[in-house]
UniProtKB/TrEMBL annotation:
Residues 29-134 form the Yippee domain. It holds the Pfam family Yippee-Mis18. The keyword rRNA processing does not apply. This is Protein yippee-like. Signal peptide: none annotated. Belongs to the yippee family. PROSITE patterns: YIPPEE. Transmembrane segments: none annotated. Keywords: Metal-binding, Zinc. It comes from Cuculus canorus. GO terms for molecular function: metal ion binding. The keyword Zinc applies. PANTHER family: PROTEIN YIPPEE-LIKE CG15309-RELATED.
């Protein structure tokens, strides 16, 4: 019999799983992209509702409510531009899912009003683009 360099068919394992840049721990509550399920943020990175109430505002995106996060994963960032938002003038950059390229929200690059400086370097993700994963009950 002729020798074959290919493994027998029963040994070949074909998968179509997606690969993300970063995976968040399965033991923590996380938020994922609703379109492709790429991990986006750990619940611990969500700016607390107490903080939001302290600053007397909730967050609104173009498609409804949004959450403010200290840090996110698996997102790309577009160029910064000045926009007048509900809370005044900010320099923001749109953020998008690195996996499926859906625009998710924005990153606050600069706040022009002193009361809004706490947002600098933080990320807004609209609820319409997120799903809760791992450990939510």
């Amino acid at each position: 019999p002729e020798l074959s360099e290919e493994p027998p068919a029963e040994m070949v394992k074909m998968t179509k799983s997606k690969t993300f840049q970063a995976y968040l721990p399965n033991c923590h509550r996380t938020y994922s992209c609703i379109h492709c399920r790429a991990h986006l943020a750990n619940h611990d990175e969500l700016i607390s509702k107490a903080s939001v109430l302290f600053f007397m505002q909730s967050f609104q995106g173009s498609q409804g409510r949004a959450y403010l996060f200290n840090s996110v994963v698996n997102v790309g960032c577009g160029p910064a531009e000045e926009r007048v938002l509900l809370t005044g003038l900010h320099a923001v950059a749109d953020i998008y899912c690195e996996n499926c390229k859906t625009t998710l929200g924005w990153k606050y690059e600069h706040a022009f009003e002193s009361s809004q400086k706490y947002k600098e370097g933080k990320f807004i993700i609209e609820l319409a683009h997120m799903i809760k994963d791992n450990g939510w009950e």
